[in-house]
Amino acid sequence: MSRASLSVVSDAVTVRVPAKVNLHLGVGPLRDDGFHDLVTVYQALSLYDDVRLSPAGELRVTTRGEGSADVPGDSTNLAARAVAEVARRADRSPRVAIDIDKRIPVAGGMAGGSADAAGALVGAVNLWGLDIGRDELTEIAAGLGSDVPFALHGATALGTGRGEQLMPILARGEFHWVLAIARSGLSTPAVYRELDRLRDNRADTDVAARRPDDLMAALTSGDPHTVAPLLHNDLQPAALSLQPVLRRTLRAGIDAGALNGIVSGSGPTCAFLCADETSAVDVAAELSGAGVARAVRTATGPVPGARILSA
Ligand code: ATP
């Protein structure tokens, strides 16, 4: 996204935003401010929400598609908060209709709300023809949520801090994923609380010291067989503790031929890395038949972050 592409004034803008999976998620101890230090490797996947912004009499949000009944339609919606923040900085009123076409599972550990926020940021800047550069947009994104900068950025990246400080990672080739979407969601704060409980609030892990160098090297090789055994998620025991049925989902994916399976972020979506496209289609078919998930999708990664479809 260049500065030039941000200065088009238009009647409506649609922005396509990707889901993410964490290939590595290291979680440090609970900090005094209530957050945890993270070291994570994000990858953006070809499972998208489309966020459409158009001029309106007042700020409003409507959502259709995957899990839309659970998405707030008021000013607490992350996309609405994003538009309100851009409007505040531009000293104008946020009179915009936001229409979200959801495919990313809600409360699924794939940062769907963050993706919508990133889409709304890019959409508002374009709709109003604002001269806001990439750095300022990233700063606004970080203020909205830890995963929002990555949804802007996309591709594969190392995230530190709360996950909002990004460094690109070179990942060769295309990785093939199968996503098992659970019947009910998990609240991210509840999963972190469960992790703290399981660790008895005594995590002495120096998360910064656990940079996943082996995984980053494997990503550069582009070989899924090398990447698969290095997938890791510190939140997985907590997600499994809250939804024990996910053990069965993970086992079913491995039995179906996936190279490895992992809970995505705070869950409960399970992500399976497969050897190639054919294997992914087979694993998806078997998982669908096994009845361990509400829905099963295939996706590839890495893909770009928020991008404009039409203006
Ligand atoms: P993350 O992995 O980023 O912590 P998640 O992917 O598990 O989050 P989201 O789908 O982002 O979960 O939504 C978490 C909660 O945020 C939802 O239960 C919903 O109440 C609220 N929310 C606010 N705005 C949105 C939005 N645009 N889309 C989805 N949920 C939203």
From TrEMBL:
In the UniProt record, does the keyword ATP-binding occur?
yes
Which biological process terms from the Gene Ontology are attached to this UniProt entry? isopentenyl diphosphate biosynthetic process, methylerythritol 4-phosphate pathway; terpenoid biosynthetic process
Job of this protein = Catalyzes the phosphorylation of the position 2 hydroxy group of 4-diphosphocytidyl-2C-methyl-D-erythritol.
Q: Report the catalytic activity.
A: 4-CDP-2-C-methyl-D-erythritol + ATP = 4-CDP-2-C-methyl-D-erythritol 2-phosphate + ADP + H(+)
What is this enzyme's EC? 2.7.1.148
* NCBIfam families, sorted: ispE, PRK03188.1
The UniProt keywords, alphabetically, are: ATP-binding, Isoprene biosynthesis, Kinase, Nucleotide-binding, Transferase
Residues noted as binding ATP in the record, renumbered to the chain: P105, V106, A107, G108, G109, M110, A111, G112, G113, S114, A115
* Database matches in InterPro entries: GHMP_kinase_C_dom, GHMP_kinase_C_sf, GHMP_kinase_N_dom, IspE, Ribosomal_Su5_D2-typ_SF, Ribsml_uS5_D2-typ_fold_subgr
Which GO molecular function entries does the Swiss-Prot or TrEMBL record give? Answer: 4-(cytidine 5'-diphospho)-2-C-methyl-D-erythritol kinase activity; ATP binding
Please give the name of this protein.
Answer: 4-diphosphocytidyl-2-C-methyl-D-erythritol kinase
- Pfam families hit by this protein: GHMP_kinases_C, GHMP_kinases_N
Query: What metabolic or biological pathway is this protein involved in?
Result: Isoprenoid biosynthesis; isopentenyl diphosphate biosynthesis via DXP pathway; isopentenyl diphosphate from 1-deoxy-D-xylulose 5-phosphate: step 3/6
This protein's superkingdom?
A: Bacteria
In terms of PANTHER family, this protein maps to: 4-DIPHOSPHOCYTIDYL-2-C-METHYL-D-ERYTHRITOL KINASE, CHLOROPLASTIC
Any idea where the GHMP kinase N-terminal domain is?
77-154
Key word Nucleotide-binding present in the record? yes
Query: Family per UniProt?
Result: Belongs to the GHMP kinase family. IspE subfamily.
Name the active site residues.
K20, D147
Q: Where is the GHMP kinase C-terminal domain?
A: 215-290
UniProt enzyme class: transferase
